[in-house]
Design goal:
This protein has 132 residues and is of the alpha/beta class. It has helices at residues 6-12, 43-49, 86-91, 111-120, and strands spanning 16-20, 56-61, 64-68, 75-80, 99-105.
Length: 132
C-alpha cells in the first residue's frame, strides 16, 4: 500500500510525464486525497508550497494528450488519438474539459518512435491495440 515513491517523484522531478488509462473515475474534478502533487490549485500554489520540481509536462492517456496551462496549471487537451473524438474524451473526463484552440489528431509514430515504444512497452500493456 502507498504511493511507492510517486509523491517524491512528482514533487522533485524536473519534468514529469503522466501516463494513465482514460477513465472518468480516474480523471475527476476533485479528489479526497492527493498522493502525488501536480499543480494543486495552480502553478502559484505549487511554488508557494515549496515543491522543487517543475510539475507535470504532459498527461498522456489512452484517448489523448494533455498539456498544462502556463498560468493556471490546468490540464488542456492538445490532441486526440486516431479514431477518438473530442466528444468521447469529454464523456470520459470528470471535469469540464478545456480544449486547445488548435487541438488535432495525435500524430502516428514514425519507424524510430515505434522501435522506442516497443522497447519500452514490450508486452504492449500501454499500447495494446494502438501500436501494431
Amino acid at each position: 500500500p502507498g504511493s511507492g515513491g510517486a509523491c517524491d517523484i512528482a514533487s522533485h522531478a524536473g519534468r514529469l510525464l503522466i501516463i494513465l488509462s482514460h477513465e472518468r473515475h480516474r480523471l475527476r474534478d476533485t479528489v479526497d486525497y492527493v498522493t502525488s502533487p501536480g499543480y494543486l490549485r495552480g502553478r502559484e500554489q505549487r511554488r508557494a508550497t515549496g515543491l522543487p520540481g517543475g510539475g507535470p509536462a504532459a498527461l498522456i492517456t489512452t484517448l489523448g494528450v494533455f498539456g498544462f496551462d502556463a498560468q493556471s496549471g490546468e490540464a488542456v487537451l492538445r490532441s486526440h488519438h486516431p479514431g477518438v473524438s473530442v466528444g468521447q474524451i469529454r464523456e470520459h473526463t470528470g471535469w469540464a474539459l478545456r480544449v486547445a484552440p488548435d487541438v488535432r489528431e495525435t500524430p502516428t509514430p514514425n519507424g524510430e518512435e515505434l522501435t522506442i515504444i516497443r522497447r519500452l512497452d514490450p508486452q504492449g500493456f500501454w499500447t495494446r491495440g494502438l501500436v501494431q
